[in-house]
Amino acid sequence: MHCIPIWLHKIQDKDKIQQCIYSICFSVDGSQLLATAGHDVLIYRSIDGHLLHTLKGHKENVICLTNAKNGKLFASGSADKTVILWSSKFEPVGKYNHNDTVQCMDFNSITHHLASCSSMEFGLYSLEQKSVQKYKILFKINTCAWSTDGQSLALGYDNGCISLRNRSGEEVANIELSDGQSVWAITWLSSRYNEDEILCITDWGQKLSFYNKYGSETLKNKNIHLEALTIKTMCNDSYLLIGGCKGKCGIFSFEGIKLSEFEDKHSWIWASSVHPCSKFLALGCQDGTLAYYKIEFNVIHGLYQEKYAYRENMTDVVVQDLVTNKKVQIKCRDLVKKIAIYKDRLAVQLPSKVVVYESSLNQTSEMHYRIKEKMAENAICNLLVVCSNNLVLCQETRLQCLSLAGIYEREWTMNSVVKYLKVIGGSPGKEQILVGLHNGQVLMLHVNSLVVQQLFNVTKSVRCFDVNISMDKAAIVDDENKCSFFDMKSKKLLFQESDITSVVWNSKFSDMACFSGKHIFNIKVNEFPAHQQRIIGHVIGMWGSRIFSLNDSIVSVIEVALSVPLYQCLEKKYFNKAYQIACLNVTDTDWKILAREALENFELSIAKKAFANIKEFKYLELIALYEEKGSHNDKDKHCLLADVLAYEGKFKEAARIYQVWGFEHKAFTMFTDLRMFDLAQEFIGSNTAGENKELLIKRAEWAMSIDEHKVAAELYISAEEFDRAIDIMVHNCWTHMLLELGRHSDKAEEVVLSRIGDELRKLGDTESAVEIYSKLGKDMGPDMVSLHVEAHNWDQAFALVEKNPMFAPLVYLPYAEWLAENDKFVEAQKAFLKGGRPERAFQVLQMLTENAVDEQRFQDAGHYYWLLSRQYLNIASNSNDNSDKMINQYNLYDKYASIYYAYNAIHRYMEDPFMSYQPETLFNISRFLMNETKNIHLKGVSKFAILYSLSKQALTMRAFKLARQILTKLQQLRIPSEYQDYVDLASLSIRAKPFHDNEDLLSMCYRCLTYNSPVVQTCITCNHKFIFSYIKFEILPLIEFQLEDNISDNEALKLIQNSYDEHKPKESEEIPDVDKFILDEENQDHLVDPFTYKLMNFENKENTYQPIKVNKTILQSMSTTSIIVCKWPKPLKFKYYRNVLPGFS
């Protein structure tokens, strides 16, 4: 680090008297420099020191200056006890006074409050309120500083104490320095390197101390060897600029390590300021000197292959792998002067010692360096290199070789000043070092030998040089920016380049060099012209395709494509070198060009590696096939080239080579695969049938690929590939084409015809299938029957069964299944019977019944049970076996059907109380269900719902006795919670009702005219079973009678019909208004009306039901309109009823 003077002024008043500069500061953007001079404030242009303004307003010397961080204001304090606020346009905008000379000031960077201090007080000025609040102090204040976060204000006292205060001015901590020396300069370091902000304190005891905002010391104080008057931070708080008495000024690290001392004037330095960009600084002296400097940092670094070591913050060393970008930081805690790196060794020169580090990889594969040796003596040198076991120090013309521990081994004296040193390799302890001298000589020596070998000689001083990895070529750059390339063995000059400032050889490829100058990077391979790229900086290394460029102090890694050197080598057929370049970094296109060129020149090893790199497996397969042949004659080589051309789509060129070298069949195959059939025809040769068939098949395959299925089918037929043609027709459902193919096929083609028939059958074209089967002679066989069954052509199937009854099971069983699927269970039952499988219909019907009950479709359940009962009745009618069992099942399922049919109304009433049923109907249904379910429990039928509905309707219809009985029964059941309140309330309220039923609800027996309780189903007098309507479930006026044993059902029907014919009035007769019944008293026994007789003379001594028996005469005498006959199939008998109320229908 060093400072370059830019401009300097000696400030004097009009009497040529030097004016002390007590304070200076930069504007926020750094374009202007403000300085105190006597009573005035001077404004300079920073870049050239031109005086822009002179501000007048104070009556005494101006002591301090400060500017606000927002750039809107700055302030000046004077010995006249006043503080003046100035705008950015250099106009006074405010003013206030102190009780003594204003010693120091500082703006808060956050709130922009101004802290101003005089000898025994300080004030806080608020810009918003435009008022100042002052605080008395017991000690003289020399300096002040706000923290960067604006929360703390530090005041430096003359007695060596520092007061830390908050934004309100209240003291929160007090720091007392041990030696009690006066404090004249303090500053704050941001929390960039620490958890909290650090207060840096300089005193006149030549100490630099570090404290946090709580008043605790954070670092041990350092002796800076000067009495500080000013301190400022630099480079984002990385460094401290400290100036003071006797003209001393130095730059220190943020830990207090002295890095540079660049001023040694006899006049005190009262003021300093650092440019906002940190590249410039200004100093103000007691003798009126105002100086402006540019700061430059020397680049201290070292490079070995991809490992780059450089100095950071002047006291640290960072080692970076430029390829993987891994870094490791080494804290040296002293000024780093020199760095050298070689393999796993790192040498760092500090002011008082040289430290050698050794690298190792830890378990996480991160870089790690540990100290190997320390050389305690002060090694003064201008160049330094490190080897595996040695250090080589250069002092002008003398080279000194030391062990890593600092033990002297040997030295060499040169005849000119050494300008450049580089270790180029060698075994440990025998490394070779190239030495570049000021007189242009390039020498080589070994660390274990005193022998010095001269290699080359250039006309001017050597600036830099490098040797390639194969140690056969060298490149040297001299002070005239001329780069010379030499052959190491013959010492012959190969070529030269001008305007070059640096040169390196590629660490991965020995024939590639990179040199730079005027921000142009050149990449050169052997004698080929250099390939240029514009890159800012100069080259310091090249690793494969990565160029390491140094610009100022920053190293950039630039990835470059090496396509141009690759093509240069391919042009000269240097395939091995081209492959080495490609391995560094080229695009996939470049790889393919390399592989293709190598293949055309039959450099198969290069071609295979190049194709493998870009995963072109087809090329590798072609090369492998070629190598397997063994005989690598011209014919095979050209066949390989033709195969490659065909793969690349150059078909005509490939075909031309095939034809010239006798591979016509390959050309034919290629064109047929490509669907280029016209071109393939040219290569058939003798036009054999086999090749024609193959061509037709290829054409058909091509037609399929473009969805021309019809054309493909016709081509397959032409090639006699009938199966493939049939597959296409079936896929597209082209039954007409299948039929035409079958018609044109010979009867001998049984396999083809049979498949056509089967496919037509599957496609549902039964007529066409019948025609094909007929052609095969299968029109009467089981295949034809199955065909009609699959097509559901039941009439044709039944016709075949009539001709051949043995086919009945093949027809009736599928027919029954079809009927069952279409809910035709009765017909399905008959079909199952004919097919010998009656149990199947029952299974389907029972499943439907169970599902209906589970889904609470009770009307459907009743219907299904009714169908089941009829099925059992039909079975009993058609078979004598187990007829009693079938009749019992019939009776049971018929009862179930009645119950579910009736319960549907109760279920709907429970779900929707506002349904359309009349109370009388619900009453009748409920009492019917109560009696029917007395001794059985059916799934889904709730006895609570039945009794609940009956109780509700009984109360509505004033059947209080019945309602009380039903409510009593309800309380014995498990009552749903939502109905519990109703049952409890109704059970209580019914007790207030009379204990009798409405007479209109009593059940009258139409046989004996006895009135019964509303809930009975059989007359208590004559045991006659009431007959209910299935519409409203009221009792019908019907009386069942039976025939005498000598009368059959058919005979009874004839008698009833004859009676109807005899009693039918003729057209001329008048129909009386009243029915007449005349008894023949002489034959009273035969003519007495049995019904009337029973009603009048009934005596039931045995208390059993006695049916009414009628003879032929009575039956013939009964009115036909009053007789109802229920005809039942056998084994059941007909049932006969008399309607006692003929007007009721």
TrEMBL record:
Transmembrane portions of the chain: none
Chief location of this protein within or outside the cell: other
Keywords: Cell projection, Cilium, Flagellum, Repeat, WD repeat
InterPro entries in alphabetical order: Beta-prop_IFT122_1st (IPR056153), Beta-prop_IFT122_2nd (IPR056152), Ift122/121 (IPR039857), TPR_IFT122 (IPR057411), WD40/YVTN_repeat-like_dom_sf (IPR015943), WD40_repeat_dom_sf (IPR036322), WD40_rpt (IPR001680), Zn_ribbon_IFT122 (IPR056838)
Renumbered ranges of WD repeats: 55-87
Every IFT122 second beta-propeller domain range: 301-553
Biological process per Gene Ontology, one example term: protein localization to cilium
Domain Intraflagellar transport protein 122 homolog TPR: 563-943
Annotated localization: Cell projection, Cilium
Secretion signal, residue range per the UniProt entry: none
Pfam families named in the record: Beta-prop_IFT122_1st, Beta-prop_IFT122_2nd, TPR_IFT122, Zn_ribbon_IFT122
Keyword Magnesium: no
Domain IFT122 zinc ribbon stretches: 998-1039
Protein name from the UniProt record: Intraflagellar transport protein 122 homolog
Record organism: Schizaphis graminum (Green bug aphid)
